[in-house]
Specification:
- With 250 residues, this protein is α/β, with parallel strands linked by helices.
- It has eight helices and twelve strands.
- The protein has an eight-stranded parallel β-sheet with strand order 1-2-3-4-7-8-9-12.
- α1 links the parallel β1 (11-13) and β2.
- α4 crosses α5 and α5 packs parallel to α7.
- The longest helix is centred in the middle third of the chain and has 18 residues, at 118-135.
- The protein starts with 10 loop residues before the first strand and ends with a strand.
- The relative contact order is 0.12.
Length: 250
């Protein structure tokens, strides 16, 4: 039976899972996170399969292609596609990242962090408000991994994310692995990040495995969750209560 709400441990839906999920009617999965960029081909088999899955399981949508922090105009056609598919599948919410992915002349296949400044807070907040107006609901904003510190930073990462959530009136997707990676790479205490995050806005948590490159940690999604990340997660939910959680694995 399709769940009415998102709770417990979810799974990130990937194409290799689809046939097995549809073939096994005994499967009980609390919810599935759909990386919606992989399912936006208009019509065709992919969306047909996703609709079949969404008839049995609760889903949430997640994307990497919006470049919320970018300088280009928001891709309204892209958002309209996500909104239409979300309505068709009944996904409970939609999440994106506090990042940008280049400009008109330069694109990267990565999620680049923004400088932690009041100007950046206002910039991305305006674009989140525009997104939420089009979607007709609040979105979830995810913190990303960082590998350098901007010399123009005016606040900590936690304060930056909290300021955006307040200004844009959005929810948060708290990625504890990303927060850990950033804290190690910037030599900043992880607890100060958590202390700044408004827990009432956190609707979902991501965990993942990083790759230790020696001089820095890389958010790779191809290793088991590190024991220190598990401990940070356990400490967070012990203090703040359970939050729907999934492990990203690619």
């Amino acid at each position: 039976m399709l769940a009415n709400k998102i709770e417990g441990a979810g799974i990130g839906l990937r194409m290799p899972h689809v046939q097995q999920i549809l073939a096994d009617e005994s499967l009980e999965i609390p919810w599935l996170e759909v990386l919606v960029d992989n399912w936006l081909v208009d019509g065709g088999l992919n969306q047909h399969l996703l609709r079949q899955i969404s008839e049995r399981f609760a889903t949430v949508f997640h994307s990497v292609g919006l470049s919320l922090g970018g300088m280009n105009s928001l891709d309204i056609d892209y958002l309209q596609q996500i909104k239409q598919l979300k309505q068709a599948c009944g996904a409970k919410w939609y999440s994106e990242h506090a990042s940008f992915s280049g400009n008109d002349d330069f694109k990267v296949a990565d999620l680049l962090p923004l400088p932690y400044t009041s100007e950046a807070v206002m910039h991305i907040s305006r674009r989140i408000k525009q997104t939420q107006e089009l979607m007709g609901e609040r979105i979830l904003l995810e913190n990303v991994s960082s590998y350098i510190s901007c010399q123009h930073n005016e606040m900590s990462e936690g304060e930056f994310i909290a300021a955006i959530a307040e200004e844009a009136d959005c929810y948060l997707l708290l990625d504890i692995n990303n927060a850990f990676v950033s804290s190690v790479n910037s030599a900043q205490p992880l607890q100060s990040f958590f202390a700044a995050i408004p827990t009432e806005r956190v609707k979902q948590i991501h965990l993942a495995g990083f790759h230790d490159k020696g001089s820095y940690l890389l958010d790779a999604h191809n290793h088991p969750v590190d024991p220190k990340v598990w401990q940070a997660y356990q400490d967070y939910i012990a203090f703040n209560g359970n939050v729907p959680t999934m492990i990203e694995w690619d």
